[in-house]
Structure to design on (260 residues):
């Protein structure tokens, strides 16, 4: 079975990636590569990983996400993990997983707000 | 679902995804709630990946458990791989002889109610996990 297709959507100066519900290891690795290429190509300043349909977050997935967050950070971008389901959050925590320095948001809407919000210092005219 | 036991052969990386599907169906059919199903599926994902990475192939057996009023699910992961030299060390969070995070075995134990590991170096490893349906 071929790995599921991943779409990386450019949204203004951000990238939006919707992770499929039950991605295999190959799909997750491909996702990382696609994201990094798109970051460079679009000079994106941030990445939103929409995981609202993801059913299982195991150690391989978590490690790849944490790595991707780190790589995106080195390229000058911030990553927001959006929409983790409650049951997935419970399981990932009990398994002992962390997702590195990713910001998190309840949904994509809030993730976009988070990345677009200017630091308070820049609000002064 | 009428069957109360079955087996699934693990021979490729894609079988990790397939094993998750099988375990999701079986545990949902037994009446586990969404969070427990996610726990069981995640543990199965870790243990199936261990087989694929360390032994290349193996088998997952599943069967429903009935002990009086208690209903549960037992998953057995069996391989004829290199075996685990020091099981106690393998159960320590963060310890891995491969490229993993060292979360698979200790994490799976936390997600399930019971776990037993039998392993002989050069012969293989059998990991049995159980989850009981909370009334």
């Amino acid at each position: 079975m071929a790995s599921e297709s991943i779409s990386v959507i450019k949204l203004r100066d951000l990238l939006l990636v919707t992770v499929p519900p039950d991605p295999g290891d190959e799909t997750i690795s491909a996702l990382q590569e696609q994201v990094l290429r798109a970051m460079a190509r679009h000079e994106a300043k941030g990445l939103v990983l929409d995981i609202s349909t993801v059913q299982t977050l195991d150690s391989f997935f978590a490690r790849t996400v944490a790595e991707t967050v780190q790589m995106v950070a080195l390229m000058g971008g911030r990553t927001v993990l959006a929409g983790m389901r409650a049951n997935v959050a419970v399981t990932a925590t009990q398994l002992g997983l962390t997702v590195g320095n990713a910001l998190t948001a309840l949904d994509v809407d809030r993730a976009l707000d988070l990345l677009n919000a200017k630091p308070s210092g820049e609000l002064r005219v | 679902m009428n069957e109360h036991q079955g087996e699934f052969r693990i021979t490729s990386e894609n079988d990790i995804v397939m094993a998750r599907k099988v375990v999701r169906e079986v545990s949902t059919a037994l009446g586990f709630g969404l969070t427990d199903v996610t726990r069981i599926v995640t543990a199965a994902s870790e243990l199936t990946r261990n087989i694929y990475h360390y032994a290349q192939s193996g088998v997952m057996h599943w069967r429903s458990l009935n002990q009086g009023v208690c209903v549960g699910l037992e998953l057995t992961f069996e391989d004829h791989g290199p075996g685990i030299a020091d099981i106690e060390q393998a159960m320590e969070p963060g310890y891995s002889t491969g490229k993993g995070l060292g979360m698979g075995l200790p994490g799976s134990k936390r997600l399930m109610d019971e776990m037993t590991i039998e392993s002989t170096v050069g012969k293989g490893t059998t990991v049995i996990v159980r989850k009981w349906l909370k009334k």
About this structure: The interface with chain A takes residues 13-14, 16-17, 20-21, 24, 34-35, 37-39, 41-42, 45-46, 49, 93, 100-101, 103-104, 106-108, 110-111 of chain B (CB under 8 Å). The first helix of chain B runs from residue 14 to 29.
